[in-house]
Design brief:
12 helices
């Protein structure tokens, strides 16, 4: 059986998550529990845990610190973060220790089960690979070694790319949420999350399906719309507050995305709210 551990200091969260996982994977998984980082590290070493789901904000040793120890102990374990801490520095540390996923609370059941299912698939691939090595060491020839070896590497590479992509996306989203009101660029964002600009550009398009400039413009306009329905906010100030120093350019971008200028949008929305 696969050995999975939930690391969560909130008892109710831990019970709900364990019940969810046992219902879906109970026949193939043994689920361990830990209520803090120190206890988690002890169980991890003792039980040879393969998949770890960690909260971050715990007393004493937090989830990130525990995960760093686990990664040193076992380089191929699958680490999954479930956390209410939507912080850029945590996401950056998560990617540095090759976390498989960084999900924010409140998470959906579908999200968690999908990530755990992928983690178990990765563990299965790793075990198959190790079994093949053992057979070779004993002088036995595994079936179709040339055919098996390459797909395993391809699947491992795909899983690694997917996990890095997901964590990078969390980092980018947090950076934009914290800095959209400033004059930020793609190159600055790439440096902030630790990537070269060409690599960041490619990864961004794969993850978000659009360019960084388009994504940032859409995010800024969505924030502008929130401000425009507040009667006490002057329309001319809205552009500046969402990162556009040039009011004419802000109006042009807003009209391109919404089909009307900011003043027209405000009038339409306030009229709707009065009905």
């Amino acid at each position: 059986m696969y050995r999975l551990m939930i690391v969560e200091d909130e008892m109710i969260e831990r019970i709900v998550l364990k019940k969810m996982l046992l219902k879906k994977f109970g026949e193939e998984c043994q689920v361990f529990e830990a209520q803090n980082g120190k206890e988690a590290v002890e169980i991890f070493k003792r039980e040879n845990i393969q998949v770890v789901i960690l909260d971050i904000g715990m007393p004493g040793m937090n989830g990130i610190q525990a995960a760093e120890i686990m990664r040193k102990e076992k380089k191929d374990c699958c680490l999954i973060f479930l956390t209410a801490y939507d912080r850029f520095d945590y996401a950056k540390r998560a990617i540095s220790i090759r976390a498989m996923e960084y999900l924010l609370k409140p998470y959906s059941q579908k999200e968690v089960l999908s990530v755990v299912e992928e983690a178990l698939r990765v563990v299965s691939e790793q075990e198959d690979k190790q079994e093949g090595i053992k057979l070779q060491d004993t002088g036995k020839t595994p079936e179709s070694p040339a055919i098996e070896e390459e797909p395993h590497h391809a699947l491992d590479d795909e899983a690694d790319f997917s996990s890095r992509l997901s964590v990078m996306a969390s980092m980018v989203e947090e950076y934009i949420r914290s800095n959209y009101m400033n004059d930020i660029s793609m190159s600055e964002t790439a440096r902030a999350v630790g990537y070269s600009e060409p690599y960041f550009c490619r990864m961004f398009k794969v993850q978000f399906g659009q360019s960084f400039t388009s994504y940032l413009a859409e995010y800024r306009v969505s924030e502008a719309k929130k401000l425009l329905i507040q009667p006490n906010v002057i329309v001319k100030e809205v552009g500046v507050r969402v990162g556009y120093m040039d009011s004419n350019y802000f109006t042009k971008v807003f009209k391109r995305l919404e089909g009307m200028n900011p003043s027209e949008y405000r009038m339409a929305r306030l009229k709707d709210l009065q009905i």
